[in-house]
Amino acid sequence: MSRQTVEAAIGAAEKLNDTLNAFLAIDREGALQRVENSSGALAGVPVAVKDNLCVVGMQTSCGSRILGDYHPPYNATVIQRLMVYLLDFRVAQLLLEAKASEHSARMVAMKNATDNAMQLIKDLTLEYNKMRQASITKELLEISSAAMAAG
Questions:
Q1: Over the stretch 19-37, which tens digit does the pLDDT of each residue have?
Q2: Does the chain have fewer CB atoms within 10 Å around its N or its C terminus?
Q3: Are 46 and 31 in contact (CB under 8 A)?
Q4: Which residue has the higher pLDDT, 41 or 133?
Q5: In terms of pLDDT, which residue wins out, 41 or 74?
Q6: Which of 132-135's residues contact partners 24+ apart within 8 Å by CB, and which partners?
């Protein structure tokens, strides 16, 4: 995932958050840092996590003032597993999209081949009819020439 894509996703979340108030914090810097420090198409995929799940370095208050400024030193098991499943899901999604793209390309190629074959049939039929017409005209000329010569 590119830096521009991550910035756009985070920008949209920040813009909507003013209205929806859905996020206590948006880790813009962390997301951008992860996209810069990672490689591959899936680097920096944005994920929203409820604040009752521990994420290293992020405020985890569970919506309570008692925990207020708690920043856990570890990721919750569900976060660790989510990252694995998210990666598996994205890879599966990419594979499905690649397969769909391949099928689409094949369909377009087959349509083009069919269209080209139909045009070739039209062209060959026209050429055949021209040759047949020329042959008939030649025979008629021969018959009329023979009739004029005989008669």
A1: 988 888 888 888 888 788 7
A2: C
A3: yes
A4: 133
A5: 74
A6: none
Among residues 8, 51, 6, the alpha carbon closest in space to that of 30 is found at 6
Q: Which residue has the tokens 């995932």?
A: 1
* Type of residue numbered 4: Q
- DSSP letter for 51, please: T
pLDDT-derived band at 44, boundaries 50, 70, 90 = low
Q: Which of 40, 33, 38 lies closest to 57, judged by CA? A: 33
CA distances, 116 to each of 48, 119, 120 (Å): 50, 5, 6
| The pair of three-digit structure tokens given for residue 95, joined into one six-digit string | 């594979």
In the DSSP assignment, the letter for residue 68 is T
* 90, 44 contact by CB (below 8 A): no
Q: Comparing C-alpha atoms, which of 54, 39, 56, 47 is closest to residue 23?
A: 47
Model-level pTM? 0.46
Instruction: Give one word for 30, left, alpha or beta, with left for phi > 0 and alpha for psi -120 to 50.
Output: alpha
Q: How many other C-beta atoms are found inside a 10 Å radius of the C-beta of residue 147? A: 9
